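Raw record, unedited: Thioredoxin
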Amino acid sequence: MIKKVDTTEQFNQLLKEEEKFYFLKHSLTCPISHAAYKEYEKFAAEHQELSSYYLAVQDSRPLSNEIADTFQIQHESPQAILFSNGKAVWNASHWKITKKTLTNALSENE
């Protein structure tokens, strides 16, 4: 199940509590983001052992900007980020977000 995160406080709690998780920056109005979200859903359904979260850029712009600044990852939307031990270890954007790329990134960062 994919859970929505809206605030910096919620995100910081994830960094403390979760050893590894995926995070998606999702635009509610972009068709490319919609396609990426569908791929993210397919991945999450097959990998329920890994927590998956997202933010809606239109609702949580301050958090989106903070993630970009803190982890030195240029903001894009859609954008998938794999976090491990409090660090961003992989990211991709736009059409590069597929079930296959998400699965491969997870395998490469075991």
